[in-house]
Design a protein that fits this description.
Mean pLDDT: 92
Number of strands: 9
Largest sheet: 6 strands, parallel
Low-confidence stretches: none
CATH topology of the largest domain: Rossmann fold
Structural class: alpha/beta
Radius of gyration: 19 Å
CATH architecture of the largest domain: 3-Layer(aba) Sandwich
Number of domains: 2
Distance between the termini: 23 Å
Strand content: 15-25%
Order of helices and strands: HEHHHHEHEEEHEHEHEEH
CATH superfamily of the largest domain: TPP-binding domain
Number of helices: 10
């Protein structure tokens, strides 16, 4: 089957669908200048030590790890990143009344910034644009804490209780929010078409949305530049540049 016939087939499926659920991973944001983690040029592929900064036990126990993590947050490419064609294609899918839910493993909020309704976006790994206190749970805009870093603080503490601050994201070793995962899985079970976009589909429980949707009768389309762990479950594989493929299938 040619690439053009695969694209046309997926377009037809989307046209006929009533409840499209998109599951997005880091691959959709690479065109916006945000590197992925596990790809050939991924952050952790190139620098395995960087993973330590994202492990909750190390972060809580070691002030030097926290200081290094805060320094890296200051320079995070998410602050200057802009939504790309892939993000905008999913906005168009929502505008057409097709998008039932958008489950994302990303923490950059580029879906909302592109124009997707926040109530449709399910952030299973949280957001980098807020801080949270490990002790009292208070959440505040990340920019407030970044301003404190620029003013000279190295390991800023919670202003409410003095506890350890971190980004409001799910670190390695940190429990996922059960209500958020339940919502994501319910959405997958309700889909008549699941688009898995830019994810290696290796991280559970979120990757389990793919077989769950398949078992519930949905067609599964995987859109990715590289092979994934669940290619054999796909009704159609679209392999290539996400910023080109998504507009081709989503824009009416």
């Amino acid at each position: 089957m040619t690439a053009s016939s695969s694209v046309e087939r997926v377009r037809q499926w989307i046209d006929a669908a009533e409840r499209v659920v998109a599951l997005t991973g880091a691959g959709i944001s690479t065109d916006s200048g945000i590197p992925d983690f596990r790809g050939p040029q991924g952050v952790w592929t190139r620098n395995p030590a960087a993973e330590k900064l994202s492990t909750i036990q190390n972060y809580l126990a070691d002030a030097e790890v926290r200081k290094a993590a805060w320094r890296s947050r200051l320079d995070n490419p998410a602050w200057t990143a802009q939504p790309n064609r892939g993000h905008r294609a999913l906005v168009e899918l929502e505008r057409r009344g097709k998008l039932h839910a958008l489950v994302t493993q990303n923490i950059d909020e580029l879906h909302q910034r592109a124009g997707n309704s926040p109530e449709r976006v399910i952030e299973v790994h949280g957001t980098i644009r807020r801080t949270m206190c490990w002790r009292c749970g208070e959440r505040r805009p990340m920019e407030e804490t970044l301003a404190r870093l620029r003013a000279g603080e190295e390991d800023p503490a919670c202003l409410a209780c003095g506890g350890i601050l971190k980004s409001d994201t799910i670190s390695f070793g940190q429990q996922l929010v059960p209500e958020v995962i339940d919502r994501a899985m319910r959405a997958a079970a309700e889909a008549d078409l699941l688009l898995a976009i830019g994810s290696t589909l290796q991280v559970y429980p979120v990757a389990g949305a793919v077989p769950l949707a398949k078992q519930a009768g949905a067609k599964v389309v995987i859109v990715n530049a590289e092979p994934t762990a669940m290619d054999e479950l796909a009704d159609e594989l679209l392999t290539g540049a996400i910023g080109e493929l998504l507009p081709a299938v989503c824009v009416g």
